[in-house]
Write a structure and sequence with these properties.
266 residues, alpha/beta, Rossmann fold, 7-stranded mixed sheet, 4-stranded mixed sheet, 6 helices
Length: 266
């Protein structure tokens, strides 16, 4: 798979943001969920800085980068040594990012992945279970996914987490959002208090809809913990659970786990 990114000259940091309005896509083009585009990106950058070891010179991978919501605030954070890579399955998002973000900083790379998806890319040529991230082993200091595993079936999640472990440096960290079914969230669901009921039980995961399985998916906590362990990723305490289940305390809408790669996979 060839990158769709043009090589551009690096722009000095003080020239990056002469026209900030160009860094917000037209409202009708934003396909990454509701909420304020800039506020959500800035909120997650705050999470990165407070909860992970992310540094300005790190190499970062954004899985499911969409239309640049998380990339935009990183323009002001990364220095000349830092690099950002993002891939997504929606061509319009990648094109917007290349035209509006990469032109400001050539260290920001965006790539289209032609992966099958029933919501966004039904005619994709590559199955998620067979997708190999187009990056070298141990290339990244930090990998993150926001609202990606919440829309992926178990076999796809397992493939992606294996690839995350492969491309992470030993000691590198990942931030991933989930819908996690632990005792408290399940009690909230059972008592009718959760914003998202996940009524369709499938063993170690639940669905919001059986008609569109990938609309929203929640996973049993034990399954998630075992999945991290099998990929040599340690979950760093505390887990930061979200307000989707209307639990207290909560830190964001979805549940957030910080993982750290402990060793190479055998």
């Amino acid at each position: 798979m060839r990158p769709l990114v043009r090589k551009l000259y690096y722009l000095p940091h003080d020239l990056l943001h002469n026209n900030d309005k160009d860094l917000v896509p037209p409202k009708g083009n934003i396909f990454v969920g509701s909420g304020d585009f800039k506020e959500q990106g800035e909120r997650f950058l705050k999470h990165f800085k407070e909860w992970t070891h992310l540094q300005a010179n790190h190499k970062i991978l954004d899985i499911g980068c969409g239309i640049g919501r998380m990339a935009v605030p990183l323009l002001d954070f990364l220095n000349e040594e830092g690099e950002y890579y993002g891939f997504d399955i929606v061509p319009e998002g990648i094109e917007w990012c290349q035209q509006n973000i990469t032109k400001r900083n050539a260290n920001f790379h965006f790539q289209l992945a032609d992966i099958q998806n029933p919501l966004y890319n039904i005619d994709g040529k590559i199955k998620s279970t067979e997708f190999v991230f187009p990056y070298e082993d141990e290339q990244f200091d930090f990998v993150f996914l926001t609202s990606v595993f919440t829309h992926m079936m178990p076999e796809d999640v397992e493939r992606y987490l294996s690839e995350i472990s492969r491309v992470l440096k030993v000691g590198g960290q990942c931030l991933i959002t989930w819908f996690i079914l632990d005792e408290q969230s399940k009690a909230q669901i059972q008592n009718g208090k959760s914003e998202m009921p996940f009524t369709h039980e499938k063993g170690y995961y639940r669905l919001m809809s059986e008609k569109v399985e990938t609309a929203n998916i929640a996973y049993e906590w034990e399954y998630v913990k075992n999945l991290y362990k099998s990929n040599n990723i340690s979950i760093l305490e505390p887990a930061r659970f979200g307000w989707w289940s209307k639990r207290e305390p909560s830190f964001d809408f979805q549940d957030i786990l910080i993982g750290q790669k402990t060793s190479k996979l055998a």
